[in-house]
Amino acid sequence: MSQPTFEPTRTKWYGVRTSNPTGLGIFERGAWWYRSDLKLFAYWDGNMVHYVVAGPAGGILFYGTQVLICPSAGNYVLNVSLSSPWVPTVINRVVSVTNIGADPATDPGTPMAVKASPPIVGMTLIGVGAGTTLTEAVVATGW
What we know:
By secondary structure, the chain is mainly β. It has two domains: 13-53, no CATH class; 59-142. It is 0% helix and 56% strand. It has strands at residues 13-17, 32-35, 40-44, 49-53, 59-70, 74-81, 91-103, 110-117, 120-128, 132-142. The protein is elongated, with a radius of gyration of 20 Å.
């Protein structure tokens, strides 16, 4: 009877870089590198690149967007659900809240009272202009 051999799958280390490698596919799944321009580690899951933030407020970067229809001027409550690469169970830090679109263009308001309750980041947009559709994006770190 022959003895089975163990051949572990190795991940590929792409080293220190200032951009993500090109040509990544399913067979490069697990590849990782350090982005010196961003000061973040990155890895390829076979579908997309994910970034890891070091330190006590670190973790994976999670993203989410939410569309909000604002028929009149005023204040609006907004909840953005985070995901990618998975749904977070811990949010260590909200990195940014950004308006990525207003149609028609108007004042998108100011995010206030931003609170994280995984996997949701909630806030109140103060002073939104009349009659617009907003698209808000949130980036947070966590696990």
